[in-house]
Structure formats: C-alpha cells, structure tokens
C-alpha cells in the first residue's frame, strides 16, 4: 500500500516530460494536427505492410478520436498480439472486446492532453510522443483548409533507444491502469525493449517504406484538398452568378432585362452550346424566343422564332412533375428524334421556373457535341437555384406591372368621377332650374295667356325628358358593364332596324334643322343575327350623335357592306369631324370633345360608350374614322350576318 500514492502520481505525469527528463539531449518540435495525422497514418501503414509482429502502443486524447481509427487498429490487432490503445473513456470504452487491449485512463491524467504512437519491430522502430500546446487566440490564423488552432509539441524519431524509452514509460502507465496485463507487459519488455537488437536493422529500408507511406497519405490528402477547393470555387461561381442576376433585378423590374442577363450568365457558367429562357402561360402550345445564349456562331439562332412546346416530351414531363428533366429521362418518338437531328441537339435539359408551384417559364440548356457529358448534379442545382430567383423576380415584376395598371385605372376612375360630377351637375341642374322656373311661373301668374302657358309646359316636359334620358343612360351602361343583360338574338332585317331608329329620331325635339339623312343599302343585303332592341339602340345613338355635330346644311349617310361572316354598318356625316388622336377616346365614358362645361351640343358622353358595350356583346367591333376638324366622321360597327 505504501507504493500507491507514488503510482498514482506517476499516472498523472506527462509522458513527454518524463522522456525529456530521461534524455535531456532531445529537443521537442512544433507540429500541426494535420502533420501528426499524416505521420501516424504513415507509421501504421508501414506496420500493416510489413511482416513483423511488432509492439504497438497508441494513446488517444479521447475515446471519440480512437473511434475514428478503430477499423485500422482491428487490422493491426490481427498482425500482432502486442497492441495497446489508451484513451479517456466517453461511453463504454473499458468494456469493449476487441483484437487488442483497451486501456481507459482518467480525464485528469496528463495523457488527456497528449498524443502518442510507438511501434517497435525486429528490424524497425519509430515513435511519436507529443502533447497539445495551448495557442493564444491572437495567434490562430483563419485558414479553413488547415486546423491551425490545434498545435502539438514533441518528439518524432526512428531512433530505437528513444523509442524503447518511450515504450517503457507507456507500458508502466498501462500496468498502473490494468494490473491484469502485468504478465503480458513483462513479456513485451523482455521481447522488444532491449537496448541492442539481436538482428541488425536496415534503417534505409525502414525509412524508405515509411516515406512511401507518408507520401501516399499526403497525396491522398492533397487530392481531398483539391476537391474541397474546386467545391469552394463552384460555390463562389454560383454566388457570383446569383449576385449578378440579383443586381440585374435591382437595377430593373423589367422581366425582359432580367431574363436576358440570366440567360447569358447561365450559358457562360454551365458551358452549354445554347441557353434559352422564356415565360410560359397555362395551355401555351408554343412561345416566341426572345432570350438566348449561343456559345458560338456555328449554331443557328432561335431568336424571333416560334418554339414548339406542345409536342416536346421533355417539356410535357416538366409541366407534369414541376421538376428538372433531361433528354435521357423521357421516351422520344421518331418524329422528335428527327427534330433533334435537324436542330443538331445531342442532349437537352429543361429546368422549370416556379413560384408556389405555379409554372412561370423554363430554362433550357442544349448540347450540340457528338458525345455530350451527362448533366452533373452541381449544374442542375446551380440552374435550379437561379430559376428559383427568377421565379420570385417574375412575380415581383408582374405585381409591379399590375400595380401600375391599377394606378392607371385609379387615375382614370378619378377623371371619370370628376367628369361625372361636372356632367351630372350641369345636366341635372340646368333642366331642374328650367322646370322650376316654368312651374313657378304657371303657379304664380294666373293671368298668363294660354299660348304662354303652353310654351312653359312644353319647356318643362322637354327638360324632364332630358333628365329621364340621362338617368336611363346611366342605368343602361351599368347593366351592360356588369353583364346582367340577357341577349335575345334573332334573324333581323337591317333595313327595318334602320327605319325604326329613324322613326325614333323624328320624334325627338331638336331646336334646329336636322341634316338630310340618306339610307344607301345594297339590294342583296343578308339578314343579321342580333337582339333587335339593342341593334336599334346602337343605330339611334349613332344617328343622334351625328345630328348633334352637324347642321341643317350637312348630310348623314347610312351604308352597309358584307364581309365574310359579318355585316359592316357605317354611319357617316359631313359635320365637325374628330381629331385623329382622339378617335380612340370618343368611346370612353363621359368623354366630350368640348369639355363638360363648354360644349354646344347636349348629352352626357355615355352614348358611344353604350354603343361599344352593345357591339362587343354580340361579338362585333366598333371604330371611328375622320380626316380631322371640319372633315366629317365615319362610325363603323359589325354585326353577325346569316
């Protein structure tokens, strides 16, 4: 029992310190963790490649480090029965059964900060005895490829005397933790730890074998580093590409600019022959190519050409799965094989541009080489990452466009509101004032003559009718725009509809002479298919509009002509005419050429808007023509014929 405290103290000492105390001529050196790993693996490989049954002692700082090398030590244990592995236990290290002896040591032991490997054979020896050196944070460089934060100081040598001394220290340490191995340790000391080997050593052969193993390990390590560097370069290229596209997005929300930049950058980054990017809307059977990257001028450009999607088996698969698809993943018909041959395409990849599972477009990569390389995962992942970015951008651009459209609509509504206020104020206030004056005169002047009374009544009735028409036009336009109108198409004679419109026109009250109206229709005019009430309404409003802007000296002509499946009706006049830049605006609601408060002709500006809604309702078109001011105007509309 008297030896126990000294034995415990010995277990806590540093093996490196003890070795340097016994051999003061030795000088320790500094090693990085990666260097020690290379040396250790080279030493182990030399043992595995040799024919000796050596003594091998390995000390790991922690059990988790040993587990990374456990498979190597199982192979070493098959070569020799004198293999010892020390480590600070983390789990059930002490209970493991293996081909070699496991020695758990206490975490407070100096071994917990050391790294040892001793190998002694009949003709070779080597040892690595080192301990971890604490490095101040200020001295740790930022080098991702080297674990420079972990450094060790110690001895590495082929010298047999030094190796034997280190083995003595470690075997004594093992005996302290595993007394049950005393006999085996005594055998190891007697067999291996002799000052002079019984068989001469061939140091050059030993060193050559070690160097070969070390070089092999370092080459494998270098290959891994090169792969890591390539991976880093690819990631940097991917980030650069994404940043380029992101920069284009920030400079402009124009989808055309974004797609053009993306196509060029993807083509350069992937090294393909051609890269196409296009937008897609549901049920599109073809698209017109606007954005293309070509690697060389020997490939035919597709810009401006129609690109078939309906018969493309790769695109069909993309539409179905919403996943990237290549030519090798689909079955190709003979017809499509001829298409590939004609285009000179040897391989094809389509990556969908998606946003929330909505297909917005596609990125196509083409190869034209006779023996194309297969599409790598890195290439597909890169293009998919960019496609995701493009998808978000297209949605932003679409939202921006919609916002601009809504702003324009709001501005138009604001103008409409202002016109509505001005027009209704004028159109309602004026007749109401007239009616009020007439009724007050009739009520307060009992001696008024019968002739004057009749004038007052006629004036009041005329303005009441004017107000009724205003309200009726509002209601009619509202019903047409909301789609609440029930159409009742039937075969009709255009001539009869014109007669009804003229009859209604003659009953209206005008304070001036009307122009001469001429009906000039071909004798063989076919019937039209339309709702008679609404057809008469269109004719009436066009004739009323012509009468407002003509004088008694002008003329109005009603003409018709047959076209394919439609009948074109023309109402022409020789009146004021319309400026060419206003021809599209005359069909807008509340539009009046003279302004709402300075016009000489009455009306609300709703008549032509109502005509457009009616004509569009039966599938026709309406438009206006005029050579300019005082050159008259011609209003055309089409109606289905039989």
TrEMBL record:
SMART domains from the UniProt entry = GAF, HATPase_c, HisKA
Which reaction is this enzyme known to catalyze? ATP + protein L-histidine = ADP + protein N-phospho-L-histidine
Q: Which GO terms describe its molecular function?
A: phosphorelay sensor kinase activity
Identify the residues that the record assigns to the Histidine kinase domain, covering every copy.
423-642
Database matches in InterPro entries? CHASE6_C, DICT_dom, GAF, GAF-like_dom_sf, HATPase_C_sf, HATPase_dom, His_kinase_dom, HisK_dim/P_dom
Entry's EC annotation:
2.7.13.3
Matching Pfam families: CHASE6_C, DICT, GAF, HATPase_c, HisKA
Entry keyword set: Kinase, Phosphoprotein, Transferase, Two-component regulatory system
* Protein name listed in UniProt: histidine kinase
